[in-house]
Design a protein that fits this description.
binds zinc ion; mainly alpha; disordered N terminus; 24 helices; 5% strand; 5 strands
Amino acid sequence: MRILVLLLMSAQFMVVPLGVAHAQRSVPIVRDAEIEALVSEYARPILKAAGLSRSGIQIVLVNDPGFNAFVAGRRIFVNTGALMASETPNEIIGVIAHEAGHIAGGHQERLRQQLERAQTMAVVAALLGIGAGIAGAAANADGMAQAGAGLAIGGSEMARRGLLGYQRGEEMTADRSALTYLQATGQSAKGMLTTFERFASSMALAGVNVDPYQISHPMPRERIANLETLARQSPYFDRKDPAELQLRHDLMRAKIAAYTDGPSGAARLFRNDPRGMPALYGDAISTLLYGNPRTAIEKADRLIAAMPGNAYFHELRGDALIKANRAVEAADAYAKAIRLDKSRSGLLQVGYGQALLATGKPDLVRKAAAEMQAGLSREPEFANGYRYLAQAYGQIGDIASAELATAEGHYQAGQYQDAKIFAARAQMKFKRGSPGWLRAQDIIELKTPKRR
Ligand SMILES: [Zn+2]
């Protein structure tokens, strides 16, 4: 059910496929401008308080209904299930604060070093036990030798054990650190308590529906009692999330429900407020996914009339227009979304490029290539984007760039053999020493690109 998002052409909420050899198995990373912007906003002040602002900590969204969040290397993974189950921003912020506590405390340092330079998708594949081949292929690569070897030895088992292996003392440290960060940012620890209490009580049901989070972060009762005493001492304990943030949180939950819980998923989640914006947003997305695109356009129009400044309503409208084969209008909708998007998401820019590409008009296809190239320079790990970039280059007859884009897509997906093959083909067509030639050389030598 949840893999059906693969069928969507747009960049919105895309689950990244692992490639032909693994056609049946997807690395379930969710790429979505709205969710990424919101969760990054949740994390930013916490990471700053933790002294991690300059550590390049990356938030990765995993398409999984279970409640989980975990750290691997310098990435914090958050399940869509956790986002949907958390009724307030504060609950997720609390979880992020706890995970930041693990990073700042230097827990799992060895694992972190090994994962430091691997591609996000290779890490996720390894963690989920679907990437042994990928990791093995990286083993002879310069710079990735460590990561590849680390993941390849016993495959994911080692990585998984590392993730599940917090010491009791480390949990207490992470809790204390989380309280400090929340205090420093003027936020309540109540949400963190709510989440932990939920786990403690479901744990009492002896293994029924055990969420992965409580396996990796054991929650004995006394730890929570301890935490509550400390949390209540904070002057911010009763402070609520700003209403505007709560609305964005609920819009995000409605989107996840629409994508992962079937046509009436969002309606069920917001059954107590069926006329509210989250329910209407979920309904419009459900119509886009499961219904008539014309009706989805009308619903998007109504959402935009109510909140004209919401970038993602315009993005939704763009998606619906593409599905209705109105690519020129879709491109306009995307252009509006980009103007309104404060997070300057490269994903939206790739989506804009896809709409331009879909018009099939030579001058717009040329613009599509430029827009997607620019978007991908900000989101280099967005493997799917390179497929459309390659298509755009192919249509304007720039075969060298098309092959380089294909190589880049394979590279970012962790498919290193295919990446090298296409890079070699591209290189033969580029002028020696030109930027394209040099990038192809990097891929042939499997050099890790510089991070943003
Ligand atoms: Zn923990």
